[in-house]
Amino acid sequence: MTVKPLAPIIVCSLLVVLSTADAQKSSKKQPSSSTSTTSAATKNPSGTTANAGSLEAVLTQLDNAAAGFRSAEADLLWEQYQKVVDETDTQKGKIYFRRTNKETQAAINITSPDTKYVLYTEGKVRLYQPRIDQVTEHDASKNKEAAESFLALGFGGRGHDLVKQYEVKLEGNEAVDGMQTTRLELTPKSPKVRNMFDKIILWIDPQRDVSLKQQFIEPSGDYRTTRYMNIKLNGKISDDVFKLHTTGHTKVVRPQ
Quick one: which of 95, 89, 90, 44 has its CA closest to 73? Predict the structure, then answer.
């Protein structure tokens, strides 16, 4: 099976969001399609499906949690399913988020089966692959707000910010690793993002208002599922975590 590595996927997904941000600012709001899959639900002006007050309560609770969010770290278990060969690939690692006065920072350290690092700081996305000793760097500074909202999906993001970029549907409650969660289904409003992901599903821990599980579903039927375990909120994270430890010979590539 040809595996799509996690780190490049995250970078590519972020860049798709960034590439559409300017266009979305200047474009007019499009009417809802008559072929919407959420046929049983009506839409309110905010873009949420009208499952009355329950969804509104979830979004408001996420808003309140976002106000006090400072940092998070967790163990990461990522599974990629490829429909054409009916196989699943697994990668493991750690993920870190930190909100400062200036920005939201993120670091992903993949440890198995191959080591790689993804870092988002100072408006730049950097992918470091120690095996080939190369850093691939993308400038995201022009769309910093869009980048940080994507990175905060399920970790420190405001609930009502979701409806700016997605049609949001409340899917009820579901157990994840023995814990009851609230399931949200997100359908991207941007056609370019929707070309990558038909839907994004979040399983939110209602006690801490963070994602325990996320699933990104592609038009091809492939999907990527991420589980977050041993989550620690609002603890101190070393500055060293948000630095790439390269060598004196590391090659830096900046795609145009």
Answer: 95
Query: From edge to edge, which strands make up the β-sheet containing 87-99?
Result: 166-176, 179-188, 199-205, 210-217, 223-233, 71-82, 87-99, 104-112, 116-121, 124-129, 134-139, 251-253
pTM, 2 dp: 0.78
Structure tokens at 136: 């691939």
Type of residue found at 130: P
Find the CATH number of the domain harbouring 142.
Answer: 2.50.20.10
Average pLDDT, rounded, for the chain: 81
Cα dihedral 64→66→69→73 (10° resolution): 130
What was the pLDDT predicted at 64? Answer: 94
Residue type at position 45: P
Q: Is residue 38 part of a domain?
A: no
> Which tokens go with 209?
């208002």
